[in-house]
Design brief:
alpha+beta, Beta-lactamase, five-stranded antiparallel sheet, three-stranded antiparallel sheet, binds glutamine
Length: 316
């Protein structure tokens, strides 16, 4: 292993050790019954760099439910289909509210703040589904993710999707509200069925880090979207990817990131790397608690940040 990779591997091993020893691990999402039983003691991290094998540490063989991280891939597909016309249906501003909040949607007449809160993601999915059927839209999503990751084994966990279909009352409320403002073009059940399946995509940390390489750009990275689009998706991840915790994540980590209630986080170091971390316990924003702490440590130890390196010498 080259020296730089070996040094990075040591950092990942240390971060994993600290995470494993952590007592306060956050709270596993239990509003989706199938996720409630996931063991909170698990932790994994992976760093993928264009043209190099990913570096991994922790429970790297365990696939997890990527949940809202899938919104990044669906957004790329929707922008590919509609281009800037997508912005007539969904905004580009942080919401400052939780991922499933309804408050602003009523005030702002069915125009969701951004594509990463649930309401906005449901619109994005609806846009990809328009003129198609759920199986095709999900097929396109899986093709995109598999091409980005270079891995044909990535799949959807049907049990997780069905579990959310049975209990996703807030998402049904959001979808019907969007429909009342004519911001859904398909029947709410069809769009939601597609959305719940997209959230149920399962990956290991290494698969997710590889899948994020399309947002890294530069030589050797998979070219699935233009440089201009990479820049904009990264901007949205920075400002909206962690919901009402986005400011805190930017402050602590300084990298574009997208979280999911399965406990996964995907973060991009533009031009350098794609990082995936997973730990199922969530903080009060609904983002992985240990995952956020691990990203903060990694950014600090490597100097990776779009705002300049963290020059603090301590771990605090
Ligand atoms: N499927 C979840 C939901 O719609 C995704 C939320 C998330 O990961 N933050 O509630």
């Amino acid at each position: 292993m080259p020296r730089a990779a070996a040094a990075l591997q040591t950092v990942l091993d240390e971060i994993t050790e600290i995470a494993r020893a952590s007592e306060n691990r956050g709270k596993v999402a239990d509003y989706i019954p199938e996720l409630a039983g996931v063991n909170p003691d698990q932790f994994a991290i992976a760093v993928a760099r264009p043209g190099q094998p990913p570096l991994v540490a922790g429970d790297v063989d365990v696939p997890f439910s990527i949940q809202s991280v899938s919104k990044v891939f669906m957004l790329a597909l929707a922008l590919g289909k509609l281009g800037d016309r997508l912005w007539s249906r969904v905004g580009r501003e942080p919401s400052g509210l939780s991922f499933d909040s309804m408050l602003l949607l009523e005030l702002e007449k069915g125009y969701p703040r951004n594509p990463f809160i649930n309401a906005g993601a449901i619109v994005t999915t609806d846009a990809v589904l328009q003129g198609s059927i759920p199986r095709e839209a999900l097929g396109a999503l899986l093709r995109f993710i598999r091409a980005a990751a270079g891995d044909e084994a990535i799949h959807i966990n049907e049990r997780v999707a069905q579990s959310e279909i049975a209990t996703g009352h807030r998402n049904f409320a959001l979808a019907h509200y969007l429909s009342s403002h004519e911001n859904l073009k398909n029947a709410p059940d069809l769009t939601l069925g597609t959305y719940f399946h997209q959230c149920a995509v399962e990956m290991t940390c290494a698969q997710l880090a590889n899948a994020g390489l399309f947002l890294v750009g530069g030589a050797g990275a998979p070219r699935l979207v233009s440089e201009a689009r990479i820049r904009r998706i990264n901007a949205l991840m920075m400002t909206c990817g962690h919901y009402d915790g986005s400011g805190d994540y930017a402050f602590r980590v300084g990298l574009p990131g997208k979280s999911g209630v399965g406990g996964g986080i995907l973060s991009i170091v533009p031009g350098i790397a794609s990082i995936a971390v997973w730990s199922p316990g969530l903080n009060h924003y609904g983002n992985s608690k240990l995952g956020t702490e691990a990203m903060e440590r990694l950014a600090s130890r490597t100097g990776w940040s779009v705002f300049g390196p963290d020059t603090r010498q301590t771990d605090g």
